Amino acid sequence: MTQSENRKFLIEYLLKECGARVKIPSEEGGQRKLLRSLMNVRPPKDISDKFLAVQDDYLQGELSQKAVTDVKDLVPVQQDLYLWQGDITALKCGAIVNAANSRLLGCFCPCHGCIDNAIHTFAGVQLRQECYKIMQRQGYEEPVGRAKITRAYNLPCSYVIHTVGPAISGRLTQKDKKDLAACYTSCLDVAIKNGLGSIAFCCISTGEFRFPPQTAAEIAVSTVKEYKGRTGSNIKIIFNVFKDSDYEIYARLLCADKDN
In whole angstroms, how far apart are CA 55 and each of 2, 60, 158? Predict the structure, then answer.
């Protein structure tokens, strides 16, 4: 089937599954938005092999239209440290880090702009299913500063590492800073335990969780460098940013650190 045919099949399947009566938009943009919304709100329950086959074909087709960046083609700013601005769902590396919520099931808000939503959308519904199984076995919400690893499904990376950062309400505390540092340490522990050669960190907690970007970046860089120095690991670490302001912050930190 073509991308258009795949998209319509997926929309019709999901509408029928949830019993919704919604007119499918005729234009491609509207269909894409509707499909993403339906995937975002779908609970982690079983689904047919036919749906998964069509979904995977569709998402791989979407991925083929993106400019995928391979970590092998990036130039390090420092030894094993990289700064890259772009869409983390189009990065080919060992693992990308997802700034998750405590339920670890992804963002259920239709077409929300958070990284959690994007990662679950372009990985496919299997990612939420796997996260659900992990959380069912665990029996309680994911604590701040811990990390879990899953397959990446239709993303170009091999794995996704999910971590819950601190949510800031009011004044930033020392505990908030320690919790954020723990996110980076936990993710690195998981990556190395699974034999990964590279990991891409998003700006954990700086979006919906309101951690100040400058301080968050300082913690990210210092924690990663301390970890590598302490463990002797040669894992490649990519600091992934999306905003120009975040790129400038990390560029200043990494370049200043390089000169010292």
Answer: 12, 8, 18
